[in-house]
Write a structure and sequence with these properties.
Structural class: mainly alpha
Order of helices and strands: HHHHH
Largest sheet: none
Radius of gyration: 14 Å
Helix content: over 70%
Length: 119
């Protein structure tokens, strides 16, 4: 079970960490997404920072004595995924446009379940 937890942590950390870094560094695709979703630049950067911190928390949470860090980081990332779906809905996006947020949030939930199960 712990191997699954490690794999999920790495995949989810790469997803959110990569997206967060792209937001922080103003990658053109992310600038376009921010403008489309009508999110202020300062909030977009905060979201990016929180994604990077959440990804870091998932990896730290793999430590034997710190599973709660990973589970709390996962909870925060799931909340951010819900927020992402909300913004996509508000922008009038279709399912394929907000499905990645749902998928990332779902993988994060699976990580949290696996982490609690392997603690």
């Amino acid at each position: 079970m712990f191997i699954l937890t490690i794999i999920l942590a790495i995949v989810v950390a790469l997803l959110f960490g990569g997206a967060g870094l792209a937001k922080i560094t103003n990658r053109p695709q992310m600038v376009e997404a921010r403008q489309h979703l009508v999110i202020p630049t300062a909030l977009w950067r905060v979201i990016g920072i929180l994604e990077v911190l959440g990804a870091t928390g998932l990896i730290i949470g793999l430590h034997q004595d710190l599973p709660v860090i990973g589970v709390l980081a996962a909870a925060g990332l799931v909340g951010m995924s819900i927020g992402a779906v909300f913004y996509h809905q508000r922008a009038g996006d279709s399912i394929p446009q907000w499905l990645p947020a749902v998928a990332a949030g779902s993988l994060t939930i699976f990580y949290a379940i696996a982490r609690v199960g392997s603690a």
